[in-house]
Amino acid sequence: MAGMTSLFAAGGIAEYLQGLDGRLSSETWAFAIAAIVHAVLIINFFAVAPLFYIWLERKVAGRIQDRLGPTRVGGKFGWLQTLADGVKLIQKEDLCPQAADRMLFRLSPYLVFVASFAAMMVLPWSDGWIAQNLDVGIFFMLAVMSLEVMGVILAGYSSGSKWSLFGGMREAAQVVSYEIPMAICALVPVTALGTLNMVDISRAQSGTLVNWMVFHDPFCFFAFFVYFTVATASVKRAPFDLAEAESELVAGFHTEYSGIRWSYFFMAEYGSMFAVSGIATALFLGGWQTGLGIEQALLDPLRNWGSGQAWLPKGFVVGNYIANLVGCLVFITKGCVLVFVQMWVRWTLPRLRIDQVMATCLKYLLPISCFLFLGVTLWPLVVYQAWGRTTVFEGSTPLGNKAFTRPAPKAIPAAAPKATAMLEREVGS
Amino acid sequence: MSWLASLVDLFFWLFHDGAFWIFAITTVAAAVAVVVSQNVVRMAFWLILSLGATAGLFFSLNADFVGSAQLLVYVGGTLVLLIFGVMLTASGPFVGIKTKPGELVMAGGVGALLLSLILYSACAVDWRNAGQFDSKGVVAAGYNSPTEGNTTRTLGLSLMGARPDKDLGSTRQLLTSGYLLPFEIVSVHLLVVLVGAAYLARAKRRKSPSAPSSPA
């Protein structure tokens, strides 16, 4: 697992630990501690984000329906409403129907949860802040997110109720169908960029707004909107949220669930909402870049500042940390804005019927995404033939020259030559 | 405190070499569970677990692409199998699958043959020197001898129609033919199976005699 060397918080936890003396310096220890730190950070984000999003959902729903939403729990804005909901859900009885397949019934919420959580391993929070910098990052992410439907099917089947089974099958048909245009739409910017690595994709979009993939060519522009529609459907959000139709369809696969297991499905849903928004951010909206073009002037000089002090841990660069923190905040903000749009859509549009959902996917979105994919492969040839250059805007840097341009921070302790080699390979020097 | 330290060491060992053992044991145990369990959905579930743990083995070998493809193709494919399994047989006679003793013996025999093949080829390899490179550059091209750990690549390539074990470095003008045609014929067999499954599973509508016949 060579990708473990580019790390979240410090200049490199594994390198730092290997530089120390004693027990912690062994590679095994350094690796294990780095792995734990990454997993804990991501699972904390994964747990806290739904807390915030459920509150936001209630507020957005309230405002759109001319109400106030939660106002009492935890002060004026009802900040702690989700926490109160969570306490209620935890103390509810964990029911299991008599006719259920008990093992699968108990297991399936975790499957959904784990699939949604594991996908976040390759989200590029900031330059160098990624849990696993895989070369096939986006491919891995789509593969893992496609496993979420397994928990849905098993939940629907194992409940021992025909309504759950129907709901599970509906969701399975929907999610499996929408995965196809989702993957094709994700391929559109990937084809333009020529890399599947999430960090490289984000780096290639540095600079001003015109460098974002969404403005790269008309096909990428439309692919963003198609992707967002498809992603909304694939995380089972309105107007494709048939599982929520309690009064019309006796809800979906989670009809028989109660208490904390029921809430796992919704934690996974909100987690996936951020995950697909994160993919959209990284692929189309510049990742951790603000798009104002100020990073290179403001943050990049900072990246080598503040290392080598005696009171600092070896290998920790203060400026690099601050720059990454800013990038991380930008990334999360963009993701949250997209999640907000998903909520906005939910409380604005009416729900589709299942045949309309399937027709939207297979008759419209799938051909559109195939057309966009075909178009983006031809685009560079057409542009080159027409204008004699590979970029739309005259004078902007061609895509191939943009990746890997930023120098890596010199924050590697000398005591870890092996890790240094791994890091250098990864940064792509 | 030394027991505590060794306990912690054990815990962290699990992350390193242990990743292999965790995934390997999960793969094998889930594969056994596929065979042992009687319910078609549980079988599919164990199969998914087994294939997913295989993907984990690939990830722990730094083969990220193969691992992701394993998840997407095999686990996703089994998922579709599960959907069909639930949709078509959940109320039918196949929910509980009982094996006859004769089937058990035959499956056991085939399994033992396959296992002995795998064990034979695994034991034929000199694993200690398998990573060594030779001076002729044959290893660099990826065609080292079976005793050096290359037991499946030539097999896969001959199924794709190439025989580097015979053609590489030979002076003959003709290339040796592989086994592409038999391989493709087997794939067509799969197509036949698919068509048959679709025929068996389709909704059977009988033309009611009272329905008005369409104008000719």
Question: What would your notes on this structure say?
Answer:
The complex is a heterodimer of chains A (429) and B (216). With 429 residues, chain A is mostly helical. Chain A has one domain. Chain A has helices at residues 13-19, 27-64, 81-91, 102-118, 137-145, 148-158, 162-193, 198-203, 218-234, 246-249, 259-283, 295-298, 318-346, 354-387, 399-402, 417-427. In chain A, α1 runs antiparallel to α2 (27-64), α2 packs parallel to α13 and α9 runs antiparallel to α14 (354-387). Chain A starts with 12 loop residues before the first helix and ends with a helix. Chain B has 216 residues and is mainly α. The mean pLDDT of chain B is 75. Chain B has a domain at 155-199. The chains are: A mainly alpha (429), B mainly alpha (216). At the A-B interface, α2, α5, α6 and α7 of A face α1, α3 and α4 of B.
List the domain count of chain A as a whole number.
1
**What is the overall shape of chain B?**
extended
Query: Average pLDDT value of chain A?
Result: 77
**Strand content of the residues of chain A, in percent?**
under 5%
Biggest pleated-sheet summary of chain A: none
Question: How much helicity do the residues of chain A have?
Answer: 55-70%
Show unreliable segments of chain A: 1-11, 404-429
Contiguous helical run count of chain A: 16
Biggest chain pair contact, residues each?
A: A-B, 33 and 31 residues
